[in-house]
Design a protein that fits this description.
Blueprint: H1 19-29, H2 39-44, H3 61-81, H4 84-90, H5 95-104, H6 122-135, H7 137-149, H8 152-158, H9 161-173, E1 177-180, E2 196-200, E3 203-214, E4 221-228, E5 237-244, E6 250-255, E7 266-277, E8 281-282, H10 288-299, H11 302-324, E9 326-327, E10 330-331, H12 336-365, H13 371-396, H14 398-401, H15 404-409, H16 417-425, H17 434-445, H18 447-457, H19 463-480, H20 507-531, H21 539-568, H22 572-598, H23 602-614
Parallel strand pairs: 1-4
Antiparallel strand pairs: 2-3, 3-7, 4-5, 5-8, 6-7, 9-10
Amino acid sequence: MSAPTDKPLHQPHTPKISEREARQVAEAAREQDWRKPSFAKELFLGRFRLDLIHPHPVPTGEATRRGEEFLSKLRRFCDSEIDGARIEREARIPDEVINGLRELGALGMKIEPKYGGLGLTQVYYNKALALVGSANPAIGALLSAHQSIGVPQPLKQFGTEEQKQKFLPRLASTDISAFLLTEPDVGSDPARLATTAVPDGDHYVLDGVKLWTTNGVVADLLVVMARVPKSEGHKGGITAFVVEADSEGITVENRNSFMGLRGLENGVTRFHQVRVPAENRIGPEGAGLKIALTTLNTGRLSLPAMCVGAGKWCLKIAREWSAVREQWGKPVAKHEAVGAKISFIAATTFALEAVVDLASQMADEDRNDIRIEAALAKLYGSEMGCLMADELVQIRGGRGFETAESLAARGERAVPAEQLLRDLRINRIFEGSTEIMHLLIAREAVDAHLAVAGDIIDPDKPMAAKARAGANAAAFYARWLPKLVTGPGQLPRTYAEFHPAGHQDLSTHLRYVERSSRKLARSTFYAMSRWQGRMETKQGFLGRIVDIGAELFAMSAACVRADMLRASGDHGREAYQLADVFCRQARIRVEELFTRLWSNTDDLDRKVVDGVLSGTYSWLEEGVVDASGEGPWIADATPGPSVKENVHRPIR
């Protein structure tokens, strides 16, 4: 049998951008300065700054009162008004549920009271998302997309007072918003953005197509990223706009369907000659990408918050099921193979909640730069959330693979374990895929090195600049490297306050974090010395560096949270036990990652990939039928009027 026929390849309408140009656009959008301390940044530099997170920061009494009051109302609403099975069955959130959330004020959780919102802290906003997401993840996604990355957040950080007064009261009470950046051939590489916004008097005219517009099908207001051409009086560049979703020339051409989150109102939106008032531009021209990335610094915390909710539910179901299901004369939980999975779910849920709450409280206090912490929380939460859901399916066995509807039809409890696995899978892709998050975090982690030595490896820099960089680098490393040799992690009584009488010893784990932080920094320095300008191509290595940092951050957060709970008398002994188990599990993963930094198949993998792309192994594809349909790999995104029916469905 011959190899499967290749499907047609289509090159859509997008600008041709070199790799270097793409990197320059991404670099220009970064926040360049570190004006506040960052625990995670210091961790990657080999400096374990426990003082930045311990004692654990706590919300004010007023913030707690308002947050708990809203959570109580939201829980009653979830219990009485949200039918998750119906949403899964009908692949749509009922209008009455959305209207009920409006009446509760859920659309304005993060909007200040002076604009009609609830003004919840990041901590309680995330708790609310975890709660409502456990009722149905599509609802959590709707509220998160609306407030974490939709119109309210960029307006809060970059909007004018006039824009806030005009739009925020609507967004707090009635209007749903969506964030439109991705295009059919533009994902994590925004330099190739094809949607344009051409200045025309006191307006801009938008043309282009946006893909995967979460909330786009039902949205009333959009934040749209478009490229303004450079011209006289116009700096140009990627720019952010607030756009009315019912503007003439906007067509929602498709409501997309997915393997999970079946209630998600996600679509394809086409702009054809859409006139947007210049007063609706957020920030200056060319600042759109920076606005998007800055918005995501805290916006990313919403996703791991919902993973925390998923972990809590996994633990509840695993506990209840494994206590009643018997095999070979005893409950399956008593069998070591199953018990290890339950222990993993419990310990990981505790640690993930610790990570999210710590990062959220630091965001509320605004005394630390949490761009790396939030990115690590998103990365770690999305990966661990999927693992916990997968383990729950395995614990449930055949019932884990069976749908809740099928279970109910034959008289058993309708446990949607397989649905959770499908729903959580997108989190490893949403708001920056795991692979992109590795690169983003790695770039921030090595920022101090590039600041002093970047010019040395930059091929465009003149020799004089390289010489100055060499002198600066020599001075920096002369001070920095000796500090990586020894540290408090080698002293047996360091962090003794984390070993109170009658509790597990967490001080040993913090000493491990301190030692591993220095080892991580030494490994990074060695790699930069070895590969220099080629370091950015070593994505496997960089990914492992980041994963080690994520584990060390999670260990630190778990220990600090356990001690906070002990001090408050709130399940302190149990929290210490969970933190201890988590840290022991994490240390095994860290040791494996350290080994794989230098013992791996990265070079061999690249050779195999070259062979795959050149057709060397096409014979391996023989013996199957390609079940995919016909059509281009990437849909045509050529600007122009829509020829499809508008499926925009605002909720009234």
